[in-house]
Amino acid sequence: MPTVTKYGFEDISKATIARMATYLRCLTYLEQQGTMTVSSRELASLTGVSPEQVRQDLSVFGRFGKRGTGYDIIRLKTEVEAIFGRGIEQWKCCIVGVGSLGSSLVASHMIQKWGFKYVAAFDSDPQKIGTRVERIPVYSVDDLKAVVRREHIAIGVIAVPASSARAVAKTLCDAGIRGILNFAPQSVKVPEKIPVVSVDISQEFLKLSFYIQSAEQRAREEQSQIEAASRSE
């Protein structure tokens, strides 16, 4: 077992947690490929960070490898999974809003391998209430509190229009939800003790457009330098 570093969850940055999730995805891929060990340099190359950053992130949680020998992939993957609670807790989830986005989120089975499972869906459309999405029952939003408490649901996913997001978040909090994943293009206000992660797809497209322009600008500058050097010869 690794030597675990003492830390408080509040001391760990969101950026570190995001990188740890990326490391876990890469470790899972490497394990599937039959790879046995990985160095910090190799893991850095796969995730787009520096080897120093990889070592620094892992050192926050403990010592997982030996200098010169790299990391045992299965062992490291198991330890990183434990950081996120896998093997410790199975996370029951519900989703509010089963339009095109909500239905797609429920249909994706990617989260199941990490211990997350949808057990209920909610909507205000009478035509959807009483139906099922990927075998998940769709209830009326009016029944949300009762179902969340009955099923001991921990995570609420918001996939409703912006105008409804804050009301839905309040209802989830009143029901005793432990965390919220918000896909609505609207920030939500919740008690400080309840974590919220917001996913704004439009912002991701905006960031991507910036990265594209930056990459193309660098390419143009490099080409200009090459042409200038060629003319000066």
Question: How would you characterize the overall build of this protein?
Answer:
With 233 residues, the protein is an alpha/beta fold. The protein has three domains: 9-83, Winged helix-like DNA-binding domain superfamily/Winged helix DNA-binding domain (Arc Repressor Mutant, subunit A, Orthogonal Bundle); 91-199, 3-Layer(aba) Sandwich (Rossmann fold), CATH 3.40.50.720; 207-233. 48% of the residues lie in helices and 15% in strands. It is built from eight helices and nine strands. The strands form two sheets. A seven-stranded mixed β-sheet has the order 5-6-4-3-7-8-9. Strands 1-2 form a two-stranded antiparallel ribbon. Helix 7 links the parallel strand 7 (155-158) and strand 8. The longest helix is centred in the C-terminal third of the chain and has 32 residues, at 201-232. The termini are far apart. Mean pLDDT is 87; it is low at 1-8.
Give short descriptive properties of this protein.
3 domains, 233 residues, 8 helices, disordered N terminus, Arc Repressor Mutant, subunit A, Rossmann fold, two-stranded antiparallel ribbon, alpha/beta
Helix content class: 40-55%
What is the class of the largest domain in the CATH system? Alpha Beta
Q: Please identify the structural class as seen in this structure.
A: alpha/beta
Number of helices: 8
Might you state the CATH topology name of the largest domain? Rossmann fold
Shape, principal axes of CA atoms: globular
The major sheet is characterized as: 7 strands, mixed
Level-2 CATH architecture of the largest domain: 3-Layer(aba) Sandwich
Report the portion of residues in β strands. Answer: 15-25%
**Rg, alpha carbons:** 22 Å
SS elements, strand count: 9
Tell me the distance between the termini. Answer: 61 Å
Strand ordering within the main sheet: 5-6-4-3-7-8-9
Count the domains: 3
